[in-house]
Amino acid sequence: MDVVLINIIGFCFLVGAGGFIGIVGHLVIKDFPLMQRDPNYMSFFFSQRKTHARLLITLGLLDVVLFITVFALIGIRGRHL
After folding, report:
1. Is 40 helix (H, G, I), strand (E, B) or coil?
2. How many angstroms separate the CA atoms of 24 and 26, rounded?
3. Distance between CA atoms of 45 and 53, rounded to whole angstroms?
4. Which of 11, 17, 54, 61 has its CA 20 to 30 A from that of 70?
5. Burial profile 17-28: b = 16 or more Cβ within 10 angstroms, e = fewer
6. Which among 20, 44, 18 has a CA at the least distance from the CA of 31?
7. Which residues contact 8 (CB under 8 A, 6 or more apart)?
8. What tens digit of pLDDT does each residue of 70-80 get?
9. pLDDT digits (tens, 9 = 90+) for 1-31
């Protein structure tokens, strides 16, 4: 049962990390000309593209929580924690 739980949470982590990388890649391709022209692109991004910024922050935090959960479950299963 523990192995199945670890595998499911680990798979969710990989899907979330892939989604995060995909969204960042999409935004870079979409906004690359603007990034080259504007030295303050990050402040523009967080002020003008609030939906994308919230999505990236949420996915990033979700990935961190899932990574810590998988790490803890593997440690508990292996009696390392």
Report:
1. coil
2. 5
3. 7
4. 54
5. beebeeeeeebe
6. 44
7. none
8. 888 888 777 76
9. 677 888 888 888 888 888 889 988 998 898 8
